[in-house]
């Protein structure tokens, strides 16, 4: 491994390095010169977030994967400042000639036209109302959302049309939009999935450096649930050998905060994420490297990743079965078994702010 195992390339970021994308033929290696007199100085730099405008002409993505229930989704951002070290979306940046490492956390592509594109799509006669997930790839409430408010704009459109929405986030910022979500929940058109991977503050800071701390996520669960908004807590993902022992305590705390249901996924390490994660693990938890890597291989058929449908979300084998049993028992014990079915019955087409055209 490189020296970045021991010194982070950028302070306050999840990834410790910026590996060359798998589609690139050339690698760029920074040169140590007068501006960086020694290696320590190079590795102590702080990389600021850069925002680029994404000019996509369509905003709703569809999905027919048998592994999840996301049929349609809206992704306001590509890349994510949260910097979660395990994020399966990291390799997406490689399609832009960027790295799945620090580039993914610091070069964010924003879609300011998303609300207008969404409104146009919902107005189209070809649109058949269905649950839209925000976002399914990168977090719609990452720090950049506090100023750009693209997710807020999309929610306002969904509220106007009364099109049901399922939100997935690990940021307390979701409570900013409490009134919109509360209104939508009143006609069974909103659910919020809060991702909680650990209750340990230090571990959370290391692996999810710019996401809300665990206690703030639980506070978000409480705030939303008290407002009548159904909240599902996702242990997304379980990190074998590192966090599975926390499953009962996470679910107990989620239940106490008012969550009505829970789910989990098993960590998967596609493409560059395998190396990025192992470098991070050796830096922060050198004493657990062998245990964690062996456990991952145990649930992934001897590999670090298994992309097959049917196994990629939960893993397979004895150890994966144990985790599933612990989760199921804890979920039942703490009453997190309610199934929320969102409804499209209230959907309406909105031509403008003052004129409504009802179609359903």
Unreliable runs: 1-8, 36-43, 354-360
- What composes the largest sheet? 7 strands, mixed
Beta-strand content bin: 5-15%
What is the H-and-E element order?
Answer: HEEEEHEHEHHEHEHHEHEHHHEE
Strand numbers in spatial order across the main sheet: 2-3-6-7-8-9-10
According to DSSP, the number of beta strands is: 12
Instruction: Give the integer mean of the pLDDT values.
Output: 89
- Spatial gap, N to C terminus: 59 Å
Q: Specify the helix fraction band.
A: 25-40%
Helix-strand makeup class: alpha/beta
Keywords:
seven-stranded mixed β-sheet, single chain, disordered N terminus, disordered C terminus, 360 residues, 12 strands, globular, alpha/beta, three-stranded mixed β-sheet
Please provide a brief summary of the model.
The protein has 360 residues and is α/β, with parallel strands linked by helices. 32% of the residues lie in helices and 13% in strands.
Mind explaining what this structure looks like?
The protein has about 350 residues and is α/β, with parallel strands linked by helices. The protein has helices at about 40-45, 100-105, 115-125, 145-150, 150-160, 180-185, 200-205, 215-225, 245-255, 275-285, 290-300, 320-335; strands spanning about 50-55, 60, 70-75, 75-80, 105-110, 130-135, 165-170, 190-195, 230-240, 260-265, 350, 355. It has a 7-stranded mixed β-sheet with strand order 2-3-6-7-8-9-10. The chain has a 3-stranded mixed β-sheet with strand order 1-5-4. A two-stranded antiparallel sheet has the order 11-12. Strand 11 and strand 12 form a beta hairpin. The protein is globular, with a radius of gyration of 21 Å. The termini are far apart. Residues about 1-10, about 35-45 and about 355-360 have low confidence and may be disordered.
């Amino acid at each position: 491994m490189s020296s970045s195992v021991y010194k982070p390339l950028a302070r306050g970021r999840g990834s410790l390095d910026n590996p060359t994308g798998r589609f690139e033929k050339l690698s760029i290696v920074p040169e140590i010169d007068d501006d960086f007199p020694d290696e320590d100085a190079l590795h102590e730099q702080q990389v600021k977030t850069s925002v680029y405008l994404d000019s996509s002409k369509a905003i709703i993505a569809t999905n027919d994967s048998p592994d999840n229930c996301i049929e349609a989704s809206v992704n306001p951002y590509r890349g994510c400042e949260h910097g979660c070290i395990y994020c399966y979306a990291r390799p997406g940046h490689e399609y832009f000639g960027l790295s799945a490492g620090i580039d993914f956390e610091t070069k964010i592509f924003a879609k300011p036209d998303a609300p207008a594109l969404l409104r146009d799509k919902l107005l189209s006669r070809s649109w058949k109302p269905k649950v839209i997930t925000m976002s399914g790839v990168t977090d719609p409430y990452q720090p950049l959302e506090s100023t750009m408010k693209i997710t807020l704009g999309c929610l306002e459109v969904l509220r106007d049309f009364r099109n049901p929405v399922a939100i997935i986030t690990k940021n307390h910022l979701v409570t900013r939009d409490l009134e919109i979500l509360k209104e939508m929940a009143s006609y069974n058109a909103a659910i919020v999935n809060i991702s909680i991977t650990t209750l340990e503050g230090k571990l959370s800071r290391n692996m999810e450096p710019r996401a809300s701390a665990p206690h703030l996520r639980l506070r978000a669960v409480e705030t939303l649930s008290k407002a009548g908004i159904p909240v599902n807590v996702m242990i997304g993902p379980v990190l074998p050998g590192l966090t599975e022992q926390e499953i009962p305590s996470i679910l107990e705390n989620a239940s106490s905060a008012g969550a009505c249901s829970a789910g989990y996924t098993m960590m998967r390490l596609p493409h560059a994420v395998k190396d990025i994660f192992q470098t991070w693990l050796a830096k922060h938890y050198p004493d657990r490297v062998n245990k964690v890597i062996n456990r991952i291989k145990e649930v992934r058929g001897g590999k670090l990743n298994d992309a097959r449908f049917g196994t990629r979300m939960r893993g397979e084998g004895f150890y994966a079965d144990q985790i599933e049993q612990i989760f199921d028992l804890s979920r039942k014990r703490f009453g997190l078994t309610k199934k929320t079915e969102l409804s499209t019955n209230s959907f309406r087409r909105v031509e403008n702010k003052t004129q409504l055209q009802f179609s359903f």
